[in-house]
Recover the amino acids of this structure.
């Protein structure tokens, strides 16, 4: 199965969409903070046990990715570093750090909204999660509410480009007034 291809049974699709919608709600929290709008939830026995959203800029912490935050919360709630029997729903394909965290915590599956062609390590650049040689593999599923997840990212970066351009123009204008 390639990126964006996902064969659902009717019940599974509805359930996966329900949990991805909650991941999107988390991504919108990041968006509201001016963070890249990435959100996720971790599910065990069809119940959400942890949520996370990007907070790198807010927390001044390289490690504050949605996936790492949610894994930390889930491990605390479960009282174990192993999250076997859990699934993660995440709006954007995990980077190498987050893919490594998914392997380390023994997550069963990651369901991904949209691919990340420039940094995705669940199939776009490399698939660390299903690679032979590791002592654990994480099943990868792409394309759940893909358009909505991708649209959120596109809108965020469109607004960011406008904001950066306006800030540069304001800085140039301030320099001109100082002269």
């Amino acid at each position: 199965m390639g990126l964006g291809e996902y064969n659902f049974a009717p019940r599974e699709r509805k359930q996966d969409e329900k949990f991805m919608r909650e991941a999107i709600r988390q991504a919108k929290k990041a968006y509201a903070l001016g963070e890249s709008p990435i959100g996720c939830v971790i599910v065990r026995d069809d119940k959400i046990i942890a949520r996370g959203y990007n907070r790198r800029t807010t927390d001044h912490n390289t490690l504050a990715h949605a996936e790492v935050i949610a894994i930390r919360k889930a491990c605390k709630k479960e009282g174990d570093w192993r999250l076997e029997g859990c699934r993660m729903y995440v709006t954007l394909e995990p980077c190498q750090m987050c893919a490594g965290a998914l392997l380390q915590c023994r997550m069963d599956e990651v369901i991904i909204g949209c691919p990340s062609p420039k940094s995705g390590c669940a199939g776009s650049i490399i698939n660390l999660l299903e690679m032979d040689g590791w002592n654990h593999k994480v099943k990868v599923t792409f394309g759940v509410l893909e358009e909505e997840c991708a649209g959120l990212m596109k809108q965020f970066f469109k607004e960011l480009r406008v904001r950066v351009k306006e800030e540069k123009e304001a800085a140039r204008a301030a320099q001109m007034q100082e002269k």
User: Anything to note?
Assistant: The longest helix spans residues 146-178. The radius of gyration is 18 Å.
